[in-house]
Amino acid sequence: MLVSTVGIHRSSSRSHDGGGWLDSRHSFSFGHHQDPMNTHFGRLLVSNDDRIAAGSGFDTHGHRDMEIVTWVLSGSLVHQDSEGNNGIIYPGLAQRMSAGSGILHSERNDGWRDGSIRHDQPPGQPVHLVQMWVVPDEAGGDPGYEQLEIAPGELENQLVVVAGGLPTYSDRSAIRIRNRSSALLASRLAPGRSVQLPDAPYLHLYIPVGSAALEGEGVLETGDAARLTASGGRTVTAGGDGAEILVWEMHQAMTLRDVRGH
């Protein structure tokens, strides 16, 4: 039986790459930032909060055996991959790339192109996004891609299933991931408004924008996260400026084979 625990991870404790076109803060070990005591939580292997300068981005690179979900907070991002998929990702558009047996892709800030922005941010600004990786149920298989816009009103003051693999959410998720034990939920909370977290063995709560109080644990500021084990069902309440929250609900943890494979 899992022991009920809550771990608060402050933004200031996250590893950081910055000083150039990319400002990236990592929730777990990533790239040359390796900490054997902080490799993953549940099935979540990567949760990076990235800001990419206008006209810049990740050139073509490869992935395999990973479900990659990208959630843009402001700005817009151009995606292109070796399977012929391409699109512009902007706030409220859920995107999933299944790396499968191997895929190449690039991601670049679309803000330098006049007329490309589909929201209120002017051209030339950084794109702010959170990219999250979860381990699929099975290795290999064909690569895949999916994106779908979520109506702004749907995200207001309630948790919406952005990326679902859990059978519980089969008729509610915007996009599907190849992981039947995990789902990503999101909400935009007005000041003082609350949502109740799911009851699950593993929950990862991240506050990319604003601040929010987690019942029994105090206030989480921008960039803070909470890792809850067997402690679901708690309430999250937005602070005075509101908050955007991202919640991974996970019913399994990574196995030793998963850890060794990545």
**What pattern of helices and strands is seen along the backbone?**
EEEEEEEEEEEEHEEEEEEEEH
Binned strand content:
over 45%
CATH topology term: Jelly Rolls
Shape: globular
Which whole number gives the mean pLDDT? 91
Query: Structural class of the secondary structure composition?
Result: mainly beta
Q: How would a crystallographer describe the biggest sheet?
A: 9 strands, mixed
Count the domains: 1
Q: What does this entry look like structurally?
A:
It is a single chain. By secondary structure, the chain is mainly beta. It has a single domain (5-253), classed as Jelly Rolls (Sandwich). 4% of the residues lie in helices and 49% in strands. It contains 2 helices and 20 strands. Strands 1, 13, 14, 15, 16, 17, 18, 19 and 20 form a 9-stranded mixed β-sheet that branches. The protein has a 7-stranded antiparallel β-sheet with strand order 2-3-4-11-6-9-12, with no helix packed on it. Strands 5-10-7-8 form a 4-stranded antiparallel β-sheet, with no helix packed on it. β17 and β18 (218-220) form a beta hairpin. The two termini are 26 Å apart. 40% of the residues are buried.
